[in-house]
Amino acid sequence: xxxxxxPEGLPLGWVQIWWAVLGLFVGSxxxxxxxxxxxxxxxxxxxxxxxxxxCKTTLTWKENIPLLSWxxxxxxxxxxxxxxPLRYPLVEGLxxxxxxxxxxxxxxxxxxxxxxxxxxxxxVVLAGLVVATFVDFDCxxxxxxxxxxxMVLAPVASFLVPALHDHTRLxxxxxxxxxxxxxxxxxxxxxxxxxxxxxxxxWAIGWVGSxxxxxxxxxxxxxxxxxxxxxxIGPGGVLWALMIASLVASLVGIGNLLRYAFLLRAxxxxxxxxxSLGRTLQVARVAGRYVPFGPYLALGxxxxxxxxxxxxxxxxxxxx
Length: 320
Known about the structure:
The protein is mainly α.
C-alpha cells in the first residue's frame, strides 16, 4: 500500500482537503457560539438563523459562506454596513487549518476505523479549544460547555477510542507486553489520571497563589479546562501542555508589560512630566496583569494532542 493512500484507497491529500473544508463550516458555527456566549436571550440555537449583530437582519445563505462571504462583502454587513470583526474569518480559517492538521495525523498503515475515530475526536477537541480561547479573550471566562463538556467527553472517548492513549505509559501498563495498542481499561485509567493531574495541579497552584498574594491566582475555568484536556492527552501530556502554556504566557506577559511601559512613557513625555522607570514598570505591571491563561492552556493542549512525540522529544532532549 502506498504511504500516501488511506486504507480505503483514497489519497490522504484529498482526505485532508475535504476535512479542512468541513472545518471551515464548523468554524462558522463556532463563531455563533463565541458571539452568543453570555448574551441574554441568545443561545447557540436561539435565534435559529444567523443574523447581523448590529441591525438584526437575518442573513441569507450567500452571506454565510465561510471566508468567501466576508471577503466579497469587504468585511461589512450588506444591510447596514456594519464592520464585521476580523475575528469571524480568523476563526473559520483557524478551524480549517486545525482540522487539516488533525487529518494530517492519519496513519495509512493502521485500520481505517481507528484513524477516522482518532481524527474525529481530535477535531472535536480542537474545535472546543477554539471556542474556549476566543470566549476567554472576550469575557475572561471559559464556557462550562467546553470545560465540563470536555470532562464528560474525555472518559467516553478514551473508552471507545483507546488509541488516544497509545502514547500514555500508564495506559500501556494494562496492555500486553506494555506496548501499543492500549486497552480500554488502560486508556480509561490514563484518562482519569490525566483529569486528576490537570485539575489538581492548577488547583494547587491557585490555592498557593491565593495564600501568597491574597487574591485569586488561577481561575477555576482554567482548572476545569486542563482537567478536560488531561483526559485526552493523559497525565504526562498535562505536564508538557502546562509547560508550553506557561512559557508562551510568560513571553506574552513580558511583551504586554513592555507595551504598557512604552505607552506610559510616551504619555508622560507628551504631558511634559517626569516619572521614574521603576514607577512606570510598576504601573505597567498592574495594567498588564489581567491576561487570560485559558488561550495558552488551549495552545499547549492542542500542540500535545497533535504532536505528542515531537513535543516530548524536543523538550526532553532538545531543551532540558
